[in-house]
Amino acid sequence: MSKHNYKINELFETIQGEGSFTGQPSIFIRLQGCPVGCSWCDTKHTWEIDDSLRIPVNDMLTKSQEDERWANLTPQDMLHVFKDRGFKAKHIVITGGEPCMVDLNPMCEAFEAEGFSCQVETSGTFEILVSTDCWVTVSPKVNMKGGYAILQSAMSRANEIKHPVATEQHVDDLKALLKKHQVEQTPVYLQPISQKERATKLAIDTCIKNNWRLSVQVHKYLGIE
Ligand code: SF4
To answer: Does the Cβ of 37 fall within 6 Å of ligand 1?
Structure first.
Protein backbone atom coordinates (compact mmCIF):
# COMPACT_ATOMS: atom_id res chain seq x y z
CA MET A 1 0.00 0.00 0.00
CA SER A 2 1.57 3.28 -1.10
CA LYS A 3 2.13 5.95 1.52
CA HIS A 4 3.32 8.36 -1.17
CA ASN A 5 1.66 11.76 -0.78
CA TYR A 6 0.46 13.95 -3.60
CA LYS A 7 -0.55 17.62 -3.51
CA ILE A 8 -4.03 17.72 -5.03
CA ASN A 9 -5.78 20.90 -6.11
CA GLU A 10 -8.97 19.27 -7.40
CA LEU A 11 -10.47 15.81 -7.68
CA PHE A 12 -13.74 15.35 -9.56
CA GLU A 13 -15.63 13.11 -11.96
CA THR A 14 -16.59 14.36 -15.41
CA ILE A 15 -16.35 13.54 -19.12
CA GLN A 16 -12.92 13.72 -20.78
CA GLY A 17 -13.32 16.45 -23.42
CA GLU A 18 -9.98 16.22 -25.23
CA GLY A 19 -7.92 13.85 -27.37
CA SER A 20 -8.36 10.10 -27.91
CA PHE A 21 -10.48 9.60 -24.78
CA THR A 22 -13.03 12.29 -25.66
CA GLY A 23 -16.41 11.28 -24.27
CA GLN A 24 -14.98 8.89 -21.66
CA PRO A 25 -16.31 9.30 -18.11
CA SER A 26 -13.20 10.07 -16.10
CA ILE A 27 -11.96 10.94 -12.65
CA PHE A 28 -9.74 14.01 -12.90
CA ILE A 29 -6.94 14.46 -10.39
CA ARG A 30 -5.35 17.89 -10.65
CA LEU A 31 -1.93 18.21 -9.03
CA GLN A 32 -0.70 21.48 -7.58
CA GLY A 33 2.48 23.03 -9.01
CA CYS A 34 3.74 24.08 -12.45
CA PRO A 35 6.83 26.16 -13.34
CA VAL A 36 6.32 26.08 -17.14
CA GLY A 37 4.60 29.49 -17.41
CA CYS A 38 2.31 29.32 -20.48
CA SER A 39 0.76 32.75 -21.02
CA TRP A 40 -2.66 31.33 -22.00
CA CYS A 41 -2.75 28.78 -19.15
CA ASP A 42 -6.30 28.30 -17.88
CA THR A 43 -5.16 26.76 -14.57
CA LYS A 44 -2.81 29.48 -13.29
CA HIS A 45 -4.13 28.83 -9.79
CA THR A 46 -2.15 25.56 -9.82
CA TRP A 47 1.25 27.18 -10.46
CA GLU A 48 2.50 27.89 -6.92
CA ILE A 49 2.82 25.43 -4.07
CA ASP A 50 2.25 27.51 -0.96
CA ASP A 51 2.49 25.38 2.19
CA SER A 52 0.26 27.83 4.04
CA LEU A 53 -2.54 26.97 1.57
CA ARG A 54 -2.71 23.30 2.50
CA ILE A 55 -6.28 22.42 3.48
CA PRO A 56 -8.13 19.34 4.77
CA VAL A 57 -9.21 16.84 2.11
CA ASN A 58 -12.92 17.58 2.52
CA ASP A 59 -12.36 21.30 2.00
CA MET A 60 -10.53 20.55 -1.24
CA LEU A 61 -13.32 18.23 -2.40
CA THR A 62 -16.03 20.79 -1.73
CA LYS A 63 -14.40 23.87 -3.28
CA SER A 64 -16.99 26.05 -4.97
CA GLN A 65 -14.46 27.85 -7.18
CA GLU A 66 -10.95 27.38 -8.54
CA ASP A 67 -8.26 28.53 -6.14
CA GLU A 68 -4.67 27.84 -5.06
CA ARG A 69 -5.48 25.68 -2.04
CA TRP A 70 -4.48 22.02 -2.08
CA ALA A 71 -4.70 18.88 0.06
CA ASN A 72 -2.23 16.06 0.65
CA LEU A 73 -3.53 12.61 -0.35
CA THR A 74 -2.03 9.15 -0.76
CA PRO A 75 -3.33 6.94 -3.61
CA GLN A 76 -5.24 4.94 -0.98
CA ASP A 77 -6.86 8.16 0.29
CA MET A 78 -7.93 8.87 -3.28
CA LEU A 79 -9.39 5.39 -3.72
CA HIS A 80 -11.45 6.00 -0.57
CA VAL A 81 -12.65 9.32 -2.01
CA PHE A 82 -13.75 7.62 -5.26
CA LYS A 83 -15.78 5.12 -3.23
CA ASP A 84 -17.24 7.64 -0.77
CA ARG A 85 -18.36 9.93 -3.56
CA GLY A 86 -19.84 7.07 -5.57
CA PHE A 87 -17.71 7.66 -8.66
CA LYS A 88 -18.52 5.22 -11.48
CA ALA A 89 -15.75 6.14 -13.95
CA LYS A 90 -12.97 3.60 -14.38
CA HIS A 91 -10.60 5.95 -16.21
CA ILE A 92 -8.38 8.36 -14.28
CA VAL A 93 -6.85 11.49 -15.79
CA ILE A 94 -3.85 12.83 -13.88
CA THR A 95 -3.39 16.46 -14.80
CA GLY A 96 -2.22 19.77 -13.37
CA GLY A 97 -0.39 21.91 -13.08
CA GLU A 98 2.48 19.81 -14.33
CA PRO A 99 1.90 16.35 -12.84
CA CYS A 100 5.24 14.97 -14.04
CA MET A 101 7.14 17.10 -11.53
CA VAL A 102 6.63 14.09 -9.25
CA ASP A 103 6.88 10.30 -9.57
CA LEU A 104 3.42 9.08 -10.59
CA ASN A 105 4.26 5.37 -10.51
CA PRO A 106 2.85 4.77 -7.00
CA MET A 107 -0.42 6.42 -8.06
CA CYS A 108 -0.69 4.45 -11.32
CA GLU A 109 0.14 1.16 -9.58
CA ALA A 110 -2.44 1.66 -6.83
CA PHE A 111 -5.18 2.61 -9.30
CA GLU A 112 -4.40 -0.11 -11.84
CA ALA A 113 -4.42 -2.71 -9.05
CA GLU A 114 -8.07 -1.69 -8.44
CA GLY A 115 -9.00 -2.01 -12.12
CA PHE A 116 -8.72 1.64 -13.18
CA SER A 117 -6.94 2.80 -16.34
CA CYS A 118 -4.67 5.84 -16.06
CA GLN A 119 -3.87 8.75 -18.33
CA VAL A 120 -1.44 11.59 -17.66
CA GLU A 121 -1.50 14.99 -19.33
CA THR A 122 1.92 16.66 -19.38
CA SER A 123 3.83 19.49 -21.04
CA GLY A 124 6.72 17.16 -21.96
CA THR A 125 9.24 19.21 -19.98
CA PHE A 126 9.81 16.69 -17.14
CA GLU A 127 10.72 13.00 -17.10
CA ILE A 128 7.49 11.01 -17.27
CA LEU A 129 7.44 8.56 -14.38
CA VAL A 130 4.31 6.46 -14.87
CA SER A 131 3.33 2.81 -15.25
CA THR A 132 3.85 0.98 -18.54
CA ASP A 133 0.11 0.90 -19.21
CA CYS A 134 -0.52 4.57 -18.43
CA TRP A 135 -1.71 6.51 -21.49
CA VAL A 136 0.54 9.55 -21.95
CA THR A 137 -0.77 12.74 -23.52
CA VAL A 138 2.02 15.19 -24.25
CA SER A 139 0.91 18.73 -24.93
CA PRO A 140 4.32 20.21 -25.74
CA LYS A 141 4.83 23.73 -24.44
CA VAL A 142 7.62 25.32 -26.48
CA ASN A 143 9.49 28.52 -25.50
CA MET A 144 7.41 29.35 -22.44
CA LYS A 145 8.41 31.81 -19.74
CA GLY A 146 9.75 29.11 -17.40
CA GLY A 147 12.47 28.25 -19.95
CA TYR A 148 11.98 24.46 -19.93
CA ALA A 149 12.91 22.40 -22.99
CA ILE A 150 10.75 19.60 -24.39
CA LEU A 151 12.41 16.28 -23.57
CA GLN A 152 13.09 13.64 -26.21
CA SER A 153 12.08 10.97 -23.67
CA ALA A 154 8.66 12.62 -23.27
CA MET A 155 8.05 12.85 -27.01
CA SER A 156 9.09 9.20 -27.45
CA ARG A 157 6.83 8.00 -24.61
CA ALA A 158 3.76 9.92 -25.80
CA ASN A 159 0.72 7.90 -26.86
CA GLU A 160 -0.74 11.07 -28.34
CA ILE A 161 0.48 14.61 -28.96
CA LYS A 162 -2.04 17.36 -28.29
CA HIS A 163 -1.14 20.84 -29.45
CA PRO A 164 -3.01 24.10 -28.92
CA VAL A 165 -3.15 26.36 -31.99
CA ALA A 166 -4.18 29.94 -32.63
CA THR A 167 -1.76 31.00 -35.38
CA GLU A 168 0.22 29.56 -38.31
CA GLN A 169 3.32 30.04 -36.14
CA HIS A 170 1.98 27.47 -33.67
CA VAL A 171 1.55 24.98 -36.54
CA ASP A 172 5.10 25.65 -37.77
CA ASP A 173 6.44 25.23 -34.22
CA LEU A 174 4.68 21.88 -33.94
CA LYS A 175 6.02 20.64 -37.27
CA ALA A 176 9.57 21.63 -36.26
CA LEU A 177 9.15 19.85 -32.94
CA LEU A 178 7.82 16.63 -34.50
CA LYS A 179 10.72 16.65 -36.94
CA LYS A 180 13.33 17.34 -34.27
CA HIS A 181 12.07 14.51 -32.06
CA GLN A 182 11.38 12.14 -34.97
CA VAL A 183 7.71 11.69 -34.12
CA GLU A 184 6.12 9.91 -37.06
CA GLN A 185 3.49 7.41 -35.93
CA THR A 186 2.05 9.03 -32.80
CA PRO A 187 -1.44 10.49 -33.34
CA VAL A 188 -1.41 14.30 -33.36
CA TYR A 189 -4.42 16.25 -32.09
CA LEU A 190 -4.73 19.94 -32.86
CA GLN A 191 -6.72 21.88 -30.34
CA PRO A 192 -7.99 25.40 -31.09
CA ILE A 193 -6.68 27.60 -28.29
CA SER A 194 -10.15 29.10 -27.82
CA GLN A 195 -13.67 28.45 -29.03
CA LYS A 196 -13.31 31.40 -31.44
CA GLU A 197 -14.05 30.80 -35.13
CA ARG A 198 -10.60 31.81 -36.40
CA ALA A 199 -8.66 29.37 -34.20
CA THR A 200 -11.17 26.60 -34.91
CA LYS A 201 -11.00 27.10 -38.70
CA LEU A 202 -7.19 27.11 -38.65
CA ALA A 203 -7.22 23.86 -36.68
CA ILE A 204 -9.73 22.19 -39.04
CA ASP A 205 -7.85 23.24 -42.20
CA THR A 206 -4.49 22.20 -40.75
CA CYS A 207 -5.81 18.82 -39.61
CA ILE A 208 -7.16 18.05 -43.08
CA LYS A 209 -3.89 19.11 -44.74
CA ASN A 210 -1.71 17.01 -42.43
CA ASN A 211 -3.97 14.06 -41.61
CA TRP A 212 -3.99 15.13 -37.96
CA ARG A 213 -7.00 14.89 -35.65
CA LEU A 214 -9.14 17.68 -34.24
CA SER A 215 -9.71 18.09 -30.50
CA VAL A 216 -12.22 20.79 -29.64
CA GLN A 217 -12.43 20.73 -25.84
CA VAL A 218 -15.95 19.31 -25.85
CA HIS A 219 -16.39 20.14 -22.13
CA LYS A 220 -16.14 23.86 -22.90
CA TYR A 221 -18.93 23.65 -25.51
CA LEU A 222 -21.03 21.70 -23.02
CA GLY A 223 -20.26 24.08 -20.15
CA ILE A 224 -19.00 21.32 -17.86
CA GLU A 225 -15.78 21.22 -15.89
S1 SF4 B 1 2.14 23.46 -18.58
FE2 SF4 B 1 -0.08 23.41 -18.30
S3 SF4 B 1 -0.44 24.08 -16.17
FE4 SF4 B 1 1.66 24.62 -16.69
S5 SF4 B 1 1.52 26.75 -17.37
FE6 SF4 B 1 1.39 25.46 -19.21
S7 SF4 B 1 -0.83 25.13 -19.56
FE8 SF4 B 1 -0.56 25.89 -17.43
So the answer is: yes
55 phi, psi to nearest 5 deg: -130, 165
Condensed to tens digits (0 to 9), the pLDDT of residues 132-149 reads: 999 999 999 888 899 999
Tell whether ligand 1 has an atom less than 6 A from the beta carbon of residue 146.
no
pLDDT tens per residue, range 83-121: 999 999 999 999 999 999 999 999 999 999 999 999 999
Task: List the helix and strand counts (H, then E) for the chain.
Answer: 7, 9
pTM: 0.94
Chain centroid to CA 114: 22
For ligand 1, atom 3: residue with the closest CA: 97
User: Could you give the CA distance from residue 69 to residue 52 in angstroms, rounded to a whole number?
Assistant: 9
The closest-lying atom of ligand 1 relative to the alpha carbon of residue 34 is 4
Tell me the best of 39, 41, 142 to mutate to test the pocket of ligand 1, counting ligand atoms within 8 Å of each CB and taking the most.
41
Q: Which residues pair with 10 in a beta bridge?
A: 30
- Report how far residue 5's alpha carbon sits from residue 180's, in angstroms, rounded to the nearest whole number: 36
